[in-house]
Amino acid sequence: MKSKVYFIKATADEGHEAISHKAWKVFLRIGLHDLLDKEDFVALKIHFGEMNNTGYIRPQWLRDVISEIRKKTRRAFLTDSNTLYVGHRSNSVDHIRLAWSHGFTPDIVDIPVIIADGLIGRDKQEGKGTHSRVKSPKIGSAFLNSDALLCLTHVTGHVQTGIGAALKNLGMGCASRAGKLDQHSVAHPRVNPKACRNCSLCIDDCPAEAIVQAEGHVVIDDKKCIGCGECLVVCKHDAIRLRWDEDSKRIQEKVAEYALHVRRIFKDKVGFLNFLIKITKDCDCMAKDQPRIVNDIGILASNDPLAIDKASADLVLERSKGKDVFRAGYNIDWSNQLRHGVEIGLGSMDYELVELS
Ligand code: SF4
Ligand code: SF4
C-alpha cells in the first residue's frame, strides 16, 4: 500500500499566521494528535538554526500545531541534541539561549525547550543495532523517554548527505554527540600538535582516560578512546579534530539505521512535517544567510519518513525544471539514504500525494 503524504502550497511571504494555519491543516491529516494521551511526553524535534542562520523553521509557524497538541497533553516540548562541532549548540545552555534568540520562547511557542542529550551531551542511551552499519545507536535520552515524536524538518541540501530532510533530522538529529561521531567518522578524533596548548582540559574531561601527555602536547590513545566526541567541544583552541572520513553513501546508510532505531521507539506515535520554504544549498548548521536554490513550495506531512522525503525531493526537482539541485550542490547521490531505508524496513518510497487547499 502506498504511504500517504499530505501537501499544501505555502511561501514565506504569506506571513507567519497563514503558514501556521497551513502547517496545522496538514498535521491534522496524519492523525498523530488523535493518538496522544493526557500524560504523554511529546518531543517536537527541530533544528533551531545556528547563530546568524536565517533558514530555520520559524517558531510562529508552529503555533497552531502546538496548540492542537496541547489540547491533548501539557507535556509537549521542543528539542534537539547537542552538536559535534564547536558552535552555539554544543552544550545545553548555549543551545537554549540560541533557541530563545530565534524566538523559541514561551510567549511565542508556549512550550519549553529541552536539549535531548543533557547539559554537555552525555545524557544518552545505547541500543542494539539491527543492521549492518550501526552496532549500537546512541540516542539522546529525552527522545527515549518520550511517548510521541513529531519531527519538524526544514528541507535543505547537505554537504555530506546531499539532502537534509526528515530522515537526517530523525537519524542524525536525535543521536547524541557520540552517535553523531559514530555516523560521521570511522576513526577516533585526533590532536593537532601544532594547535595544542597543552592546557590539560581535555585530559580532565575525557571519560575514558584516553588522552595522555606527549612532548609539549597531548595525544589520543585509539585503544582507549570510546568515541564519545566530548573532547571535540572541550578544546578551546580547536586542536582536536574529527576525521571527516566516512564516505557519503555509508553516512547515509548509518543515518537510515539510526532513524529506524528512533522510529521504532515510538511505534505509531510518530509524525513528520517537512517545510519546503527557503530551501538552501546547505543546512541550518551554516552560521549565515543563504540564498534559495528553488522557490518556496509548501509544507508536507506524513507518518512515513521515507515517503515524505521522496515526495519532498520530487517536488523540489519538479520545481527546478528537472535539474537535481541537491546533487548540483556537492555531487552526492542523496537517494542512497532512501534506498537503504527501504531495504531495512524504515518506510516506503511509494507514496500518494494528497494536496490540500
Ligand atoms: S584541550 Fe586542546 S589545547 Fe588543551 S591539551 Fe587538550 S588538545 Fe591541547
Ligand atoms: S572521543 Fe571521548 S573517549 Fe575519545 S579521546 Fe575524546 S573525550 Fe576521550
Q: Please, could you describe this protein's structure?
A:
By secondary structure, this protein is α/β, with parallel strands linked by helices. It has 14 helices and 18 strands. It has helices spanning 16-30, 32-35, 63-70, 92-101, 106-109, 141-144, 166-171, 177-184, 201-205, 230-234, 248-266, 305-319, 325-330, 335-343; strands spanning 3-9, 42-45, 76-80, 113-115, 124-126, 138-140, 148-154, 156-158, 162-164, 190-191, 211-213, 218-220, 240-241, 270-276, 279-280, 292-294, 298-302, 351-356. The longest helix has 19 residues, at 248-266. The chain starts with a strand and ends with a strand. Residues 191, 196-202, 218, 234-235, 237, 239-240 line the site of one iron/sulfur cluster (SF4).
